Amino acid sequence: MTSLRRIIELEYYKFRHYKPFVIILGLYVMCFVLAALSIKGLLDWFLDVNKNDDVFQYFIKAGLPLFDFVDIWQNLGWLATLFKWIPAFIVINSVTIEFSQKTIKQNIIDGLAKREFLASKVALVLFISLGSALLFLFMGLFLGFLYSPVKDLPYVLRHIEFVGAYGLEVFVFLSMAMFAAFLIRKSGITIILFLLYTACIEPIATAFMKYECEWAVWFFPVESINLLIRFPFAKYILSHVDDQVMMRDVLVTMGWAAVFIGLSYLILKRKDL
How confident is the model at residue 61 (pLDDT cuts 50, 70, 90)? Predict the structure, then answer.
């Protein structure tokens, strides 16, 4: 318990007065909240602009239950995943700044074990992930009670497991960012390469393998992370959508989290500081 408290306090004291950390974290919260609050208004505006179109007339009359309970948890969860790169920059910066300012070396000299240093970074990742899940839960309840025509508890709680899935998605994604930071150690280069891999290289490669070669790609790290909360909106045009969190995806992403943390420890243990 003393060691855990020491690790948490160490990370807290490092970042409590570090303005970029507070600014980026605040930007993440602001983007999340503003996107959640504005999406309904944007949808209503879009449908109103296209009100003379026969196709959109159907949606205007039927209504799109984006924020109705039962649907809201998967819908909002998928939208929230678009912002997970913002806290990833926090994690990358928190690791790389330790190397650029030599604070990691000083911490080790002062008696901090390498596994304790890694644990402090994992604690930061866990803190952001839990905070993200709580923010998601709060916004889901707020928007659901604001827009949903049904507010009975069974409907509110149905598919609420997507809150946990979102927290897990953020945790694994940030663990991947942490591993990249330990591997490369340069903030700017790490951010560029991490963005290239997660947003371009793997998505393009897995899309080619899936549709051209018909290969299974669910075990790739970014693909498995994205599969935790699957794209939900196709169901509104009567296409099949998996509206639950699949245990296979949970196990695969948890496995990748263990791999990223384990590899981070091996790098920290074997490389010179």
Answer: low
- Helices 161-184 and 72-80: crossing angle in degrees, nearest 10, is 10
Cα distance between residue 157 and residue 70, in whole Å: 8
Residue 107's pLDDT is what? 80
Mean pLDDT within 159-165: 95
194 near 92, Cβ under 8 Å?
Answer: yes
pLDDT at residue 2, rounded to an integer: 47
Could you give the number of structural domains in the chain?
1
Tell me the residue range of the domain where 211 lies: 2-270
Is the pLDDT at 249 greater than 70? The verdict is yes
CB 89 within 8 A of CB 125: no
Q: Closest Cα to residue 173, out of 111, 244, 125, 235?
A: 125
Q: What is the pLDDT of residue 15?
A: 74
Q: Residues near 98 by Cβ (< 8 Å), separated by ≥ 6?
A: 104, 107, 117
What's this model's pTM, rounded to 2 decimal places? 0.90
Q: What is the number of H-type helices and E-type strands within the chain?
A: 13, 0
**Rounded distance between C-alpha atoms, residue 48 and residue 164, angstroms:** 35
And the tokens for 37? 């609050």
* Cβ atoms within 10 Å of 213's Cβ, excluding its own: 8
